Amino acid sequence: MLLAIDAGNTNIVFAVFDGDTIKGQWRCSTTTERTADELGVWLHHLFTLAGVPVDAITGAIIATVVPAAEFSLKTLCRRYFDVEPMVVGDPEIDLDMKIVMDRPSEVGADRLVNAVAAHALFGGPLVVLDFGTATTFDVVDSNGDYLGGVIAPGVNLSIKALHMAAAQLPMVAIEAPRNVVGKNTVEAMQSGVYWGYVSMIEGLLARIRKQQNLEHIKVVATGGLAPLFTKAVDEIEHLHGDLTMLGLLMIYRRNSNKTANQA
Predict the structure, then answer these.
(1) Which residues hold substrate (predicted)?
(2) Residue 90 marked as a ligand binder
(3) Is 110 marked as binding a ligand?
(4) List of the chain residues with pLDDT < 50
(5) Long-range own/partner contacts, residues 254-257 (CB < 8 A, 24 or more apart)
């Protein structure tokens, strides 16, 4: 079985694959002070509840955009699962993807993993739209090469910023309001965030198509709020909640096979 770990700015997601099947998936808040021992005890308990034998883990792969969390995650894999993890971004890890960027090392590991999975599943050219701490657009061409992207503040981040900057604006739940013009403060805020992001997404997708000289480009959405926005954005053709984890599985298999062939 494979332990796949995606450490984002808000949450760390752990998933166990048995072949192509996810046998368990858990998340905790991203806290760089959390030690490998704390994570190990927590995960061992969850493995037991899910009926997943700890000693069944034969490999691990990590993607992190939080450098300070990498050491604890590597130690977790070595100490509690007795495996040496692959880390997306290490020079020896082959993504089978050209990164056409000024500074390829600056691209978040999760964005590259999503791009690998989306192109393998749906082909290209495409845009991966990820609703995370940031809302990101990642552009992949028909050959599977990563061309670049767009980074905007995440939806939850925008809500928090409004609440913190304006004394009379409350924290509100993110949902699709029935009317664009709100009749009270909460409705007005919900409309501004929801329909504002819908308009931003539609506008950016149109500009990406124009820049790439494409009449049509596939759009794949992922992330916690993706289902909510997929309802309103017609350009989103595919919704995939486990895109990052699937990409980690693909990258692990590619590099495991490559190592085995070289041996």
Answers:
(1) 108-111, 185
(2) no
(3) yes
(4) 263
(5) 254/94, 254/96, 255/86, 255/92, 255/93, 255/94, 256/59
